[in-house]
Design brief:
This protein has one domain: Ribokinase (UDP-N-acetylmuramoyl-L-alanine:D-glutamate ligase). Helices cover 39% and strands 20% of the residues. Strands 5-4-1-8-9-10-11 form a seven-stranded parallel β-sheet, sandwiched between helices.
């Protein structure tokens, strides 16, 4: 499989740090995956919207510096980028505070350039999005995103979906479940996290989650269970090579997705791809921030 990867969602300003000292960076679930993929040498474009403000300009430049293509970053005339802050406890577990209600990304499917961007994105070898990507959009945008996924599949591309569930982003749990089901059916590669599936559906068994996703049409489903490992489509669970004491678990699942998808695009089997996912996630959680600086 060759060609451009399109990751779609919302990239935001990120505040991280300890005590009264904070670092201003950038992050967002699908953006994190896009940056990891670009760092690994893949041809990646990010589909989103930013504003005309100085912070939006800095975000564009920072993503370009990481190697992420900006041809699908649309410009909203009045809105700007969202903001979130990370808090971590002694075990490295994180919590988030968001300021994103009026971000430009929420209107990415309602801008003059949207139709042209969708035509270009439909030619991707891989389209990747998450349940957060759907959560931030109005219903019209959600339908447009799934229509784009259908076009990618019709053109012979793959569609990967991660069911990142953030209840506060949804108008109701019922709406989240309904769009979750439609997204699973639209995808060819599934990357659910068991914790998210439990929160949304109540299911606690990775095998049952995988079976449900596969029954809905997403045959290549890998269920992530944190330190316990990842369940392959055939049923085997591959644990991480080592037990780590994380500094910051922000972006761990996003990093896993990048490692996995990057390996798949290079022709690896699922076992090798999961190990690549563990390696990328392991590197990330031993450093602060969702997208640690390169070292």
């Amino acid at each position: 499989m060759t060609g451009r990867i399109v990751c779609l969602g919302e990239g935001m300003l990120e505040l991280s740090g300890a005590g009264e000292t904070f670092r201003l960076g950038h992050g967002g679930d699908t953006l994190n995956t896009a940056i990891h993929l670009a760092r690994a040498g893949h041809d990646v474009a990010y589909f989103t919207a930013l504003g005309r403000d100085p912070f939006s300009t800095k975000l564009r430049a920072a993503w370009r510096d990481e190697g992420v293509g900006d041809s699908l970053i649309l410009t909203h005339p009045t809105r700007g980028a969202g903001l979130y802050a990370i808090s971590t406890d002694a075990q490295g577990e994180r919590s988030f505070t968001y300021w994103r209600e009026a971000s430009a990304a929420r209107a990415m499917f309602a801008l003059p350039e949207t139709a042209s961007a969708m035509d270009r994105a439909a030619q991707a070898a891989l389209l990747y999005f998450s349940l957060i990507s759907l959560a931030i959009l109005p219903d019209e945008g959600r339908s447009a995103l799934l229509a784009l996924a259908a076009r990618v599949r019709a053109n012979g591309g793959e569609v990967a979906f991660d069911s990142n569930y953030r209840p506060r982003l949804w108008e109701s749990e019922a709406a989240a479940r309904a769009w979750h089901a439609r997204a699973v059916a639209a995808a060819s590669i599934g990357l659910p996290t068991l914790e998210d599936e439990t929160a949304l559906t109540g299911e606690t068994d990775a095998a049952v989650v995988a079976a449900r996703w596969q029954a809905q049409g997403c045959a290549r489903t890998v269920v992530k269970s944190g330190a316990e490992g990842a369940r392959l489509p055939g049923g085997e669970t591959i644990p991480p090579p080592a037990r780590l004491q994380p500094i910051d678990t922000s972006g761990a699942g996003d990093a896993f997705n990048a490692g996995f998808l990057g390996a798949v695009l290079r022709g690896s089997d699922d076992t090798a791809a999961v190990l690549a996912g563990h390696a990328c996630a392991g590197w990330t959680i031993m450093r602060p921030g969702a997208i640690p600086a390169r070292d």
